[in-house]
Write a structure and sequence with these properties.
Blueprint: E1 4-7, E2 12-15, E3 23-28, H1 39-57, E4 61-66, H2 73-82, H3 86-103, H4 119-131, E5 135-138, E6 141-144, H5 160-166, E7 181-186, E8 201-203, H6 205-217, E9 221-227, H7 231-246, E10 251-257, E11 260-262, E12 265-266, H8 277-283, H9 286-294, E13 302-304, H10 306-330, H11 341-345, H12 349-366, H13 371-389, H14 396-416, H15 430-448, H16 452-464, E14 467-472, E15 475-480
Parallel strand pairs: 3-4, 3-9, 9-10, 11-13
Antiparallel strand pairs: 1-2, 5-6, 6-7, 7-8, 11-12, 14-15
Length: 481
């Protein structure tokens, strides 16, 4: 089975066939740097980071581009409110963006183009649209004329009349159509501006992504992604201006993730349920947040509550415990990985489950990036692994299957990013290691004396600090998550 992608443009799943064999051009709309990004923004950053890494895992050479919008009305308004320059606001929140991306385990794109560094490309693109009759000037402003582009509304699935009625557009009686959008805005006092054939000014938001994506990926490229809220008007306008300028197809596959709801309601500042990603990371491990998003199909809406995050954290702890148990059971069994192929084929129920689930995991990921189904297979195998380890003595085939499951999980984590540290496990170091080991030893003595309350307090406190204690017949073991 090949990779399939749900294409928003055609409203159906399609076989993914890149323009060039084994090469993928992938563009994701990045942040407008006027504030810390919120948890809803984190969803596309995380899920498309995973999808990009999965494509690499599947053997593609991926050129991944994510822009930074560092000139925009929101940035200007924030600068005026604080009484500082636009450049200062943009620099502050660009740095914060990369800091928060790193905290969440999101790999940097191959290119992070900034809008202010690509003004010449935008001016050139606008000039083409004027020459072809798709744009018009009013004073120092330049607008795109949507009625000239016959396929306008194809991405959002609406016609022009519906869009006129429902679109949020700036009131400007000078425009020929209320849906016409700004390609270039004439300079205003106190705002950043650049020289252009139409006078000093700055680019509109939509033209930025078209110019930067085409510069780094070509006039036609494979995947353009972003949040569902960008379908209209941003991506609709990108398609119109790009196709009008080049007379070519723009992006071939459009991918959009669903909304994040907070306590069942759409996140918004007016409702007071606005969550800044860097604040959530202070309460929950980055791996937990990644798993939270990946346990739901990227196109579906997802609901956030603190209880759901706690449940996700508990599920991840159980998975890490399973890995630790596997290491424990296999440490003295090197022969567990020396099993003939025919033994595996005729092996235990668990060994067959591992082989089956490995295939099903990849099939799920290839089927429009169904990470929810794929993650489900991992937890299904982990549950069965725990069951057979509880039996104590394991056959060689089961030992091989356990080792195979562990290798599989660590291999898949190259793109999932849900296991902390090397090999998914962290151990304490130096004095910290010795102190925790001493506390575990003291707890053992308390348990022998049946002083359960104090023993439980030590265990619970260590868990709060990120240390897991497992009580086994041979004694207690601990590790750091």
């Amino acid at each position: 089975m090949g990779i399939k992608i749900y294409n928003t443009f055609t409203s159906q799943k399609e076989d993914f066939i890149p323009l060039e064999p084994d090469r993928v051009g992938f563009y994701l709309c990045g942040p407008t740097v006027y504030d810390y990004f919120h948890l809803g923004n984190a969803r596309p950053f995380i899920v498309f980071d995973v999808y990009r890494r999965f494509l690499i895992y599947r053997g593609f050479q991926v050129k991944y581009v994510m822009n930074v919008t560092d000139v925009d009305d929101k940035i200007i308004n924030r600068a005026q409110k604080e009484g500082v320059s636009v450049a200062e606001i943009a620099a502050r929140y660009t740095q914060a963006f990369f800091e928060d991306m790193e905290k969440l385990g999101i790999h940097r794109a191959d290119v992070h183009p900034k809008a202010t560094e690509h003004i010449p490309e935008m001016i050139e693109l606008i000039q083409k649209l004027l020459e072809k009759g798709y744009a018009y000037k009013i004073g120092g402003d330049v607008y795109f004329q949507v009625e000239k582009f016959r396929k306008y509304g194809r991405l959002s699935g609406k016609n022009l009349e519906e869009l006129k009625a429902g679109a949020r557009v700036e009131v400007d009686e000078r425009k020929r159509n209320p849906l016409d959008f700004a390609l270039w805005k004439a300079a205003k006092a106190g705002e950043p501006c650049w020289e252009s054939p139409w006078g000093k000014g700055r680019p509109g938001w939509h033209i930025e992504c078209s110019a930067m994506s085409m510069k780094y990926l070509g006039e036609t490229f494979d995947i353009h992604a972003g949040g569902e809220d960008l379908i209209f008007p941003h991506h609709e306008n990108e398609i119109a201006q790009s196709c009008a300028a080049t007379s070519k197809k723009f992006a071939r596959y459009w991918m959009h993730n669903g909304f994040l709801n907070i306590q069942g309601e759409k996140m918004s500042k007016s409702l007071g349920n606005f969550l800044i990603a860097r604040e959530v990371v202070k309460r929950h491990r980055p791996e937990v947040i990644r798993l939270f998003f990946l346990q739901k199909h990227y196109r579906s809406p997802i609901n956030y509550t603190e209880e759901i995050l706690r449940q996700t954290a508990n599920a991840l702890d159980r998975l890490q415990n399973t890995l630790q148990n596997i290491e424990y059971y296999l440490k003295d069994s090197p022969q567990g990985t020396d099993v003939a192929h025919d033994q595996i084929q005729q092996g235990s129920e668990f060994s067959r489950l591992v082989q089956y689930s490995k295939r099903e995991f990849i099939k799920a990921m290839e089927d429009d990036f169904n990470s929810a189904a794929a993650i489900g297979k991992i937890f299904e195998m982990a549950k069965e692994a725990n069951r057979i380890m509880e039996k104590g003595e394991l056959s060689k085939v089961d030992q091989f299957a356990l080792a195979d499951f562990r290798r599989m999980l660590l291999e898949y984590d190259q793109f999932l990013g849900i296991l902390p540290g090397k090999d998914g496990l962290k151990k304490g170091e130096g004095d910290e290691d010795a102190l925790v080991a001493l506390l575990v030893q003291v707890r053992e003595e308390l348990r022998k004396k049946k002083e359960w309350s104090l023993a439980d307090r030590i265990r619970n406190k260590l868990k709060e600090l990120g240390y897991i204690i497992e009580d086994r017949r041979e004694g207690s073991v601990w590790y750091k998550v």
